[in-house]
Amino acid sequence: MSDPKYILGVSAFYHDSAACLVRDGELLHAAQEERFTRKKHDPDFPKHAIEWCLEAAGIAASDLAAVAFYDKPFVKFERLLQTYIGVAPRGLVSFLKAMPVWLKQKLWMPDIIREALGGYEGPVLFGEHHESHAASAFYPSPFSSAAILTMDGVGEWTTTSISRGEGNRIEILADIRFPHSTGLLYSAFTYYTGFRVNSGEYKLMGLAPYGEPRYVDLIREKLVDLREDGSLRLDMRYFGYLDGLTMTNRRFHRLFGGPPRAPESEVTQREMDIARSIQVVTEEIMLRQAARAHELTGERNLCLAGGVALNCVGNGRILREGPFDEVWIQPAAGDAGGAPGAALTAWHRYFEQPRENGRNGDAQAGSYLGPEYGEEEIRAVLDARGAVYRRLDEEELLRETAGRLASGEVVGWFQGRMEFGPRALGNRSILGDPRSPEMQQKLNLKIKYRESFRPFAPSALEEKAGEWFDLDRPSPYMLLVAPVKEERRRAVSEAGASGLDRLRVVRSEIPAVTHVDDSARIQTVNGETNPLYHRLISEFDRITGCPLVVNTSFNVRGEPIVCTPEDAWLCFTRTEMDRLVIGPFVLDKADQPPPGDDLEIGGPMGLD
């Protein structure tokens, strides 16, 4: 048997830098740099993530068959130069800000990679940005052939691509090019409603159901020319990202009746209506582009990637209303997913290796690809912090945790390998009782320290999810939205309630995970992919008759999901979480020593 081939995939220098290690075509390890540096959406070169990948595999850089970068810096630089020349003399400030970074750093990627890897001398390969997205979606999917739709802000030039994958080959069939972009359109409204671009788009999506689509016609008439085939053109007179430092400009602001909302200021009905309106337009774009992908490929299955593929409401509509039988979405759909996409492209294209599907037909294997920590490592951290804890056997741990959840406690749950991607999927999660009418506000205001309107997702037993939601297939990566079943809903009256007041209305048997439009963003939990988490929810079901729990990421606002036992302890201590279950150990908040000065909210793990 020949020695295994290891390929390192890298994404960096835009947002959500990441590294991924592939062994003989298998996704072995993957992690975002933010999880190690504790800097949310860290764009810097993923030095720590790379070091962890190599260490976890027990190899050195010299053992790598290749390093693959997720896009082509010189082509991206060409796009920037052409854009600046095209709008000159406007855009001078943006040009002067961007050029030093490119000339001193981003153009020298081979040198950066080789130096970071201690003088690595092997091949350094570069894929196209949307090719990496497409590969991240198709190669791990359970499909032998599929249409592939990638949508984001912009790569080198492409903002949307339609491809067909078959076996180990991917062929790009059509694209949309900068500056016309669904992702940048959505990000413009993210900026205008007062949220941070490249991280606040999910807030805009969560705000949308509170509003009315009052501005849909205005957006269609003035901002975006959407054709039947899903292609689009933006009227660049209303946007600032070509020649300025902001996403929108004064003409855009006049169109919508005023300046952007100041960050952290009150969210008004106007922002809710704007959010609803751009969400409606975005869903229509996604549906038309999916239809075009079907028309071009004739395939029955669809793979999705790129930042827009994190719009789980649009994904749900594609699944329900689109022409495809099945849809598979890369859980790290944004730029982090470019790392595995680049590595898998190198394996299948550069090394010309055949493709095999993974466990359960899904080679992503639950996306549990990050670091894990043994019992003794966890115990050492707890002892160093003076923590008071008990060690339980697995049966007692599950029984007691499920009982505490049923009694209304909020539990930090830290087990196994960390998730790769933006969602906590049951290994770095904060859990609660979905039946509690107070749980959503409790989690938002006392645990997560974030906006009260933000919805929470349920983790449901895969075999019982269809009894509670209008969903007829697995949703392992929390990337599909579906309605709560009619028989689980309650007749409600919203007389006198508007805007965020609608939060207080109890709409179903599971109000903590039922959004104001009677929908939920669902994670289905499979007993083979995550047996411990599945057993915990099964025990909660045995006690309560409810086969799901609230699952939100183990972090506070402005912080990445916790990675290490130390991160978990700090987050637990800083919040009003009732209990921490970390490996086999259980910690009750009331038993812990008072936090020191380094544990105050606003410190290294504080709020933005």
Q: Rough shape?
A: globular
| Low-confidence blocks of residues | 599-608
- Helix run count: 18
C-alpha termini separation: 52 Å
CA radius of gyration: 23 Å
Structure characterization notes:
With 608 residues, the protein is α/β, with parallel strands linked by helices. It is built from 18 helices and 21 strands. It has helices spanning 34-37, 47-57, 73-87, 92-104, 109-116, 129-138, 182-192, 201-207, 216-223, 250-255, 269-297, 312-321, 338-350, 375-384, 394-406, 439-447, 531-544, 565-574; strands spanning 6-11, 18-23, 26-32, 64-69, 124-126, 145-151, 158-166, 169-177, 224-226, 232-234, 301-305, 326-329, 390-391, 411-414, 428-432, 457-461, 480-483, 519-525, 548-553, 579-582, 585-588. The strands form 4 sheets. The protein has a 9-stranded mixed beta sheet with strand order 13-21-20-14-15-19-16-18-17, with helices on both faces. A 5-stranded mixed beta sheet has the order 3-2-1-4-5, sandwiched between helices. A 5-stranded mixed beta sheet has the order 8-7-6-11-12. A hairpin with a 6-residue loop joins strand 6 (145-151) and strand 7. The longest helix has 29 residues, at 269-297. The model is unreliable at 599-608 (pLDDT under 50).
